[in-house]
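Exam review. A common question shows you a sequence with its structure tokens and asks you to describe the fold in words. Practice with the pair below. Do the first one on your own.
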Amino acid sequence: MNAKVENSIRLTNHPKTEKESNRSPGGKSIVFMSNRGVGNWDIYKMDAAGQNVVRLTDDPAKDDRASWSLDGTKIVYTTPAQPLKLVMLDLAQK
């Protein structure tokens, strides 16, 4: 059996889809995208234990590909505005 799968721990338990997770530089938080809201894709953050889930974006467009700044204080993500936008979100504001 694949050791990566064998040692995996499920962090979320939601009936909607969650994907494209990315751990913060310090390892304390994870950002991911989910359609758990009203069906559109938004960016969420949770602690490394899978608790304290917070929706960071609330946009009718698909927000995805979240990535952390090197210091862990901001995330960047894409949204399919015309043209495609790269957005930086300051987590101190959330």
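Now try the second one, then compare your answer with the model answer below.
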Amino acid sequence: MNTNSIRVFSNPQRGGNARDPQRETPPFKAGGDHWPIVPRLVDLSLVEFRVLRLICSGYGLAKEIVNGYSSKFNEPISLPAVERTLAKLRGKGLINSKPVSKALMHEATTLGRLIACSRNPHSP
């Protein structure tokens, strides 16, 4: 997973810091410090989360996801609905898709695995 960062500069002229004015500020670094940017929370619908879980379970093709969704969740879902959901998950950076023959094979990204591929007994 790629982590973006921002460059933060400290002020070398200040004698202290905001919490403790008596405490000396660390030395100024010419290049600045790199602080990681925390990614936004990912907003997933129930269908998106279920499809991501199926991908984590090894269902990589859209047709496999349609069949797995119906059997695991006892709810029918159409192939176009799965394809729309996969496009949304790709847009959110949760899955990658690569061509295999005439179809696309889908796999979870690192962020997608962190969200849906854990072995948490309390998750659906």
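Model answer, second protein: Residues 88 and 114 are 17 Å apart (CA to CA). Residues 1-38 form one domain. Full marks require stating both points clearly.
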